[in-house]
Amino acid sequence: MRYLLRLGHSFARLHVRLCHQSVYNSHSKPQTVRVDLGDKKLEISSGKFARFADGSAVVQLGETSVMVTAVSKTKPSPSQFMPLVVDYRQKAAAAGRIPTNYLRRELGTTDNEILTSRLIDRSIRPLFPSGYFYDTQVLCNLLAVDGVNDPAVLAINAASAALALSDIPWNGPIGAVRMGMVDGEMLINPTRSEMSSSSLNLIVAAAPSSQVVMIEASAENVLQQDFCHAVKLGVKHSQQIILAIQQMVRERKVTKRTPIKVFSAPTDMVEHARQFASERIYAVFTDHTHDKISRDEAINKIRLEAEENLKEKFPQAEPFEVIESFNTVSKDVFRSLVLNEYKRCDGRELTSLRNISCDVDLFKPLHGSALFQRGQTQVLSSVTFDSLESSIKADPITTALSGIKDKNFMLHYEFPPYATNEIGKMGGINRRELGHGALAEKALRPVIPKDFPFTIRVTAEVLESNGSSSMASACGGSLALMDAGVPISSPVAGVAVGLISKAVPGKPDEIQDYRLLTDILGIEDYLGDMDFKLAGTNKGITALQADVKIPGLPLRVVMEAIQQATVAKREILGIMNKCIASPRGTRKENGPVVENVRVPVSKRARFVGPGGYNLRRLQAQTGVTISQVDEETFSVFAPTPGAMAEAQEFITDICKDDQEQQLEFGAVYSATITEIRDIGVMVKLYPNMSAVLLHNSQLDHKRIKHPSALGLEVGQQIQVKYFGRDPTDGRMRLSRKVLQSPAATLVKTMSEKQSISMGSSNSHTDSTGL
């Protein structure tokens, strides 16, 4: 028996090796194609690296090269969705750097890595076949980065090539390009230096026949016509990349695998569920008195009854088939209402907004606050100011790879579970929260003044959610910034547009009919085909993100969605302006204060203190943050005016040194030893001064290793000569050594009870120098 088991395992291992050998042989022939994109050449190659993967491709632009591998299991996953994982990791070696953490290895994931992973995921996910529930992993490996060409767009194209050249079922390929705009001129895949002066950062991914799959954009108030032109141009150039990948697929003669099972509901079960539940579902979706909670409860009640009925009728059916049968009917009824009857489940017209209300200055201690309510989506936004030292510092690897540097404006999005009447884990951050926050931050960043003296943090906490919480965060953040007195150039509003479409029979990538929905509900997002988010000012667009759930959108639909969103955006801005139309003229009284303090070079050592002790004590006791501006100027940030007053009093007390102003250059004084150190002695010329170091080299002409060699003790008075302050570091210069010569004839003593009269007839100075 054991022998038979071992024999079975051996055959299984042999089968796996043969399968891998077959894949290896099919990938063994290297392929390379080049695509002309304006004055740049994009190179796509495959068959040289990672040949055990189902698909592997390398895309190179300039000296930046990205390899992407794709592997999909042949056994279905127990999950009821497409289990796709995209992992983009920044490699320090690719940029010629070593990680700065203590292990000198890549640890964890950065925000930039997560956002880029989402970008790739959103580009390729819509083209997987419906019901393909097989674990699939797409890994992006940076091979080399030249610091000129950004690797993110190359990774999208490499993922497209890897999937297209594999046997994984996928209805690609796609192509992606980045569009920039400098002085009105459109740039294709601009370099990092070109992007630094570009008013547009647009990434567009497209499928064959100029179908748009994904858009991600940030812009500095770009006009609608310029934005639309950039999208069209990006789609046009992406078709060249698609043609190149299709050529590689034809040359390799790729054959896609046939999945063991495609998860879909059986037709007879769907028809039975339709007969049992469609009328009741229709009644719920046409009852406009329902809100999110009551509608969900009503549908779930019908769901439970329908599933019980299906189990009785089809006892052999799998749980997934039962659930999916009801979901199919529910989705069909909902979409039919919109497509055929132009009805939405909350009673609105297709282009109507939900009721909007705004409020600002909710909590007096906050630097700025606002509450934005749109239907049953509610976002509480707050603004916090801090010193420029609190700005986000990009790690060296991120800076080297993507050019992202320090930033003094950030927006953090929070989505607690109670926002949807659920229980969940708190703490940490997930990819969805990070992505939504990044989008709202992009929407607001262009209107923030570049020379603002504080670091700004906007927090957007979703208290209620029924669709489009990211755009509500942009609206609430704009209101909170104006409430805080940030002189933003224009108010910003955002809105989400949805899509319900009908495909041509037998051609899922062609749209026969469609309806665009303004300001979508959560259910319209879930059961719809698109989540098209647009934000901007009355003048132009500042951010756009399009997530598509079908294989592609015709350009005319995208252009219409931009126009419909623009009209809604202006309507929202009109409502917001009734609450607060422009930034407050002054920041709130309890807000932070920044002042510059001038400290003469002669006082700098005393101001800073030994080893920075005085500065640390000042910051700990008053809560201020101090940074040096130039040789004599320090910037003091205080969280409140009260803290600034305390800091000023502290600084005045530290720098108070009236008696030193009476010291005469070249005069000899009596100093008291307060401490004996290995390198010298600490002395005071008068009681209330800070002790200064008299180095061993200035104690005597003889070379000594310790002051005790001269018999010096704490409390002893010695004669020293004063040579003013060092012009470079402000330290007091004293010498006992020069007094060991006959040139020293006059000794001046200073005590707590004795005052100095400078310039009197009995004063004398010695011209001997150090």
From TrEMBL:
Transmembrane segments: none annotated. GO terms for biological process: mitochondrial mRNA catabolic process; mitochondrial RNA 3'-end processing; mRNA processing. Residues 752-770 have a biased composition (Polar residues). It is found in: Cytoplasm; Mitochondrion intermembrane space; Mitochondrion matrix. Keywords: Acetylation, Cytoplasm, Exonuclease, Hydrolase, Membrane, Mitochondrion, mRNA processing, Nuclease, Nucleotidyltransferase, Phosphoprotein, RNA-binding, Transferase, Transit peptide, Transport. Residues 749-770 are annotated as: Disordered. It is a peripheral membrane protein. Its main location: cytoplasm. Residues 666-737 form the S1 motif domain. GO terms for molecular function: 3'-5'-RNA exonuclease activity; polyribonucleotide nucleotidyltransferase activity; RNA binding. CDD domains: KH-I_PNPT1, RNase_PH_PNPase_1, RNase_PH_PNPase_2. Its EC number is 2.7.7.8. One of its GO terms (cellular component) is cytosol. InterPro entries: ExoRNase_PH_dom1 (IPR001247), ExoRNase_PH_dom2 (IPR015847), ExoRNase_PH_dom2_sf (IPR036345), KH_dom (IPR004087), KH_dom_type_1 (IPR004088), KH_dom_type_1_sf (IPR036612), NA-bd_OB-fold (IPR012340), PNPase (IPR012162). Pfam families: KH_1 (PF00013), PNPase (PF03726), RNase_PH (PF01138), RNase_PH_C (PF03725), S1 (PF00575). Belongs to the polyribonucleotide nucleotidyltransferase family. NCBIfam families: polynuc_phos, PRK11824.1. Homotrimer; in free form. Homooligomer. Component of the mitochondrial degradosome (mtEXO) complex which is a heteropentamer containing 2 copies of SUPV3L1 and 3 copies of PNPT1. As part of the mitochondrial degradosome complex, interacts with GRSF1 in an RNA-dependent manner; the interaction enhances the activity of the complex. Interacts with TCL1A; the interaction has no effect on PNPT1 exonuclease activity. This is Polyribonucleotide nucleotidyltransferase 1, mitochondrial. The gene is PNPT1.
